[in-house]
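User: Please predict the structure of the protein below. I'd like the answer in structure-token form so I can feed it into my own downstream comparison script.

Assistant: Understood. Taking the following sequence of 101 residues as input:
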Amino acid sequence: MAKGRFENIINSDKPVLVDFYADWCAPCKMVAPILKEIKDEWKDGIRVVKVNVDRNPAIANSYNIQNIPTLIVFKDGVVAWKGVGVKPASEIRKALANLQK
């Protein structure tokens, strides 16, 4: 994914949940069902994007991604929440709910 395209995606008025991952990362595979659960709950109210850090090092470096999985919620292009490691759906829900206040 080109960095310019990524910037366009995250500059959205609805929350964008970005999953920074790698194919070889076992914990990253545990995040997928959690993200599906969040997407199913929020439907069109959120966009979920996966960014492979091996294929997109410039994007990963620009957000100082040093450990994976890392989840970042962007709102209007700004980091609203960041979680490193496998985060429970409840923690992600709470971060998203805070955006609606």
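That's the full token string. DSSP finds four helices and four strands in the chain.
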